[in-house]
Amino acid sequence: MSESIDILLPVLARAYEPPPDEPIWQWAEKNLRLVSSQNAEHAGQPWSLSRAPHTRLIFDFLADPVARELHIMKSSASMFTTALFVALAWLARYKPCRVLYCINNIAEVGKVSHSILQPFLRQVFGDQVFDDRSQSRDFLRLPTGAIFELGSPTEGFFANKQASVVILDEFDIFPDSLEGGATEPLSAARGRFKASTRFAKLITLCAPQRQFDIVRKDISQPGTKQHRAYLSGDQREYRIPCPHCDAEFAPGRTTLHFEHLRLPEAESVEGELMRETPYDMARVLRETALQCPACNGLIHEGWGPKDKAALVRRGRWVPTNLTAPPDRWSAWYNDTCALMGNSELGKLAAELIDARSKGRHDLIQVCRARFGEPQSEIDTVDLSADHVRRHCASHRRGVCPVLPWFIGLSIDCQKGPSETHPLLFKWVKAGIMDNGEIHVIDYGQTASPQELRLVYEQGIPYSGPPIPGSDGKPVMLYCQRAIIDSGYRAGADAATEEDLGHHIYPLCVSWGFRDDGRWLRKETGYNYTGTWHLVPMKGRGRDQIRGEATQFSTVTVPHPQFGQIELPLHLFNDPWFKSELYHGTLAADPTTPLDPRLRRYPRIYLPSPEDEIDEQFLNEISSEKLMERPKRVRGQIRMGREWGVPSHRKNDFGDCVKMLRVLWSLMSRSALQSAENEAQAPALTARSGHEAR
Question: Per-residue DSSP letters for 346-394?
Fold first, then answer.
């Protein structure tokens, strides 16, 4: 009996030992050291709040008697997880309770327990950390009576359990309803506090996820879970003082100052058609700074009293949503405030520049991982004809209001009305500027290939500002590029397609070519080095072609003179260009100034609504919707949202406008032959002159 008492007394004394009269983070600085799994560079060194001063939010939240929920929308490497486990070690020592830690991936349960949590706990309790691991969860018992249960979001994990602390890590990756039930994860977590009203803390944290990164079974609400949880709280932001004007501001992507480091036009690579002026990357890495919105003063990377590190350590969390419930905290954090983890301002700017040059999806990835910015706006878009009408300009249908870089004709094909006319051609003609602006001139449909050729050859009246040298004469513009979607009738392999009798590739051959090249003989047939009047294109999936890049291919087609020829075929990333067109342009407010960091493509201008724009044209441009579709990613079926057309709608004119985007991308990258010659020879001529084709 006395031996049992001797064992129990130290345990009980430890369990009921009052907490020290100091904040949690000060206790941690004296008693805990960093573990290698969280920070290999500083492993073994004392944990210090000065390395990540923003994580004080975790400790303040646990100490606040009113706060019950904390939702953190953060960058990927924010040090919040480390601070959370430090706080749990303090709780296990001085405020023993039941803690439920939930993470979506079962494989991560053991990793988190053995590599991160237990090393911190053993620094406090030595070998008295008892681990009872099962296949799907870890169960930790501590001598103070504290219990830690780690598992995945299933109905069984939450069922019939009361807890004082519930943590939902990587919250965006959770399913919409718990496995084995219909309960939403956040509701299940809140239900664990019924018997713990005095001390109840719920924490969710995650870097915002792209929709096609999220494994989902049912989409019930737009946006990501973490972003919705953040919006429901007081939306705190980490503000630092400006050393120049004493104002406080929240550093972020928009406060990075590096745009002045663009190279002059003359220093661009000779002969290369570049989307944007290049930067002096050596200076970007060295001179990028934070800019105060109040006084435009600059804060540089460094350790001086007026540099970033010192000011970040003086920062504080400030709530911005004063209408939120007082017990619900939320916060947004990004790497511009980071003092560790390869997050110098110059490196952040370099990653932004690189992502911009690759495309919108790469930019979204950097904004999520580095700046904690959600992409939820793309998930709430329901494109309508009203969105499209906002892009109507003042020019009449059938005239060109600008002097374009070139005029393009885009054609989409569908099944024709009869055996005599097996194909129906829908077309859009537009003037395309060198910066990507598209001015739609005319559109229509025909079942006759001869009429389609006349559409291509017909002159277009110019209605813009006077052109020097025209002497007031009417000026006509002409098409210089024509493209056609070959995805519908290109192959001619199936019997049903053979019955149609007219295919896209032979049509392209029948239009002929310009006299700007020569024929080369190859094993598979003759190849023309010049420019064809009508060029076929075909969309491919995101997994086949990355970003805005295109692939060049050829198809072998019969030819009356050479027997067999190789016709050029351009392949493009169809989901990528759909997202650029529908979300990046048509769904955006055209009156908002263009921000190149958010939306790379300029506007689309449609003919004046006074001409009663054809409702079919408007409806087909706006027919695409964000739709939930299964995708196979690395051998796993995942649900993602992509632009698609419902089965009862048509999107032919929308495809035509999308292909004009592709055409501009190809031309601007010199992917079509003789693009530079076209850029130097504007598409215009006087009525009495020759056609400029």
Answer: HHHHHHHHHHHHH-HHHHHHHHHHHH----GGGGG----HHHHHTTB-S
Place of tokens 């939403």: 184
| 192 vs 311 pLDDT, higher one | 311
The amino acid occupying position 414 is Q
Residue ranges of E strands in 52-169: 69-73, 98-103, 130-133, 137-141, 147-151, 165-169
* Per-residue model confidence as pLDDT tens digits over 330-363: 999 999 999 887 889 999 999 988 887 776 667 7
Q: What is the pLDDT of residues 233-275, one digit of tens each?
A: 999 999 999 999 888 999 998 889 998 888 774 333 333 333 4
- In the chain, the amino acid numbered 495 is A
DSSP string, 220-239: -SSS-HHHHHHHHTT-EEEE
Note the pLDDT of residue 312: 94
Residue 135 has a pLDDT of 61
Kindly report, residue by residue over 464-508, the tens digit of the pLDDT.
888 877 777 888 899 988 999 887 543 333 333 333 334 688 888
Q: What share of the chain is helix, strand, coil (3-state, %, to 5)?
A: 35, 25, 45
Which residues on adjacent β-strands are paired with residue 527?
520, 566
Residue 590 structure tokens: 């055209």
Phi, psi at 549, each rounded to 5° = -65, 150
Beta-carbon contacts of residue 270 (< 8 Å; ≥ 6 apart): none
* Tokens (6 digits) for 118: 């237990």
**Distance in angstroms (rounded) separating the CA atoms of residues 133 and 147:** 13
CA 75 to chain centre: 14
Q: Which two tokens stand for residue 443?
A: 């559109």
- Please state, in angstroms and rounded to a whole number, the distance separating the CA atoms of residues 565 and 512: 12
Instruction: Report the alpha-carbon distance of residue 509 to residue 204 in Å, rounded.
Output: 60
Q: Which residues pair with 143 in a beta bridge?
A: none
Q: In the numeric block, which tokens belong to residue 31?
A: 């008693």
Average pLDDT over residues 408-432: 84
Measured at the alpha carbon of residue 334, what is the angle toward residues 330 and 339, in degrees to the nearest 5? 120
Q: Which two tokens stand for residue 424?
A: 């129906």
CA 464/CA 679 separation, integer angstroms? 19
C-alpha span between 400 and 407 (Å, rounded): 9
Q: Give phi and psi for 136, each to the nearest 5.
A: -115, 0
Whether 168 and 104 have beta carbons less than 8 Å apart is answered as no
Residue pair 442/469 in contact (Cβ under 8 Å)? The answer is: no
Nearest-CA neighbor of 122 among 85, 67, 73, 83?
85
| Structure tokens that stand for 51 in this block | 């390395």
Mark residue 405 as left, alpha or beta (left: phi above 0; alpha: psi -120 to 50; beta: remaining): alpha
pLDDT in tens, 530-557: 778 888 888 876 656 665 666 778 887 8
- Two structure tokens written together for 121: 């706990």
pTM over 0.70: no
Distance CA 166, CA 98 (A): 9
H/E element holding 253?
Answer: none
Alpha-carbon torsion angle 19, 23, 24, 30, nearest 10: -90
593 in Cβ contact with 364 (< 8 Å): no
Q: Give the count of alpha carbons within 13 A of 403, CB side only.
A: 13
Q: Give all strands of the β-sheet with 685-686 in edge-to-edge order.
A: 460-461, 475-477, 685-686
Q: Rounded distance, CA 569 to CA 572, Å?
A: 10
Q: What is the pLDDT of residues 671-686, one digit of tens each?
A: 444 434 443 444 433 3
Average pLDDT of the segment spanning 448-463 = 90
Q: Is 420 in contact with 394 (CB distance < 8 Å)?
A: no
Angle 220-221-226 from CA coordinates, rounded to 5°: 120
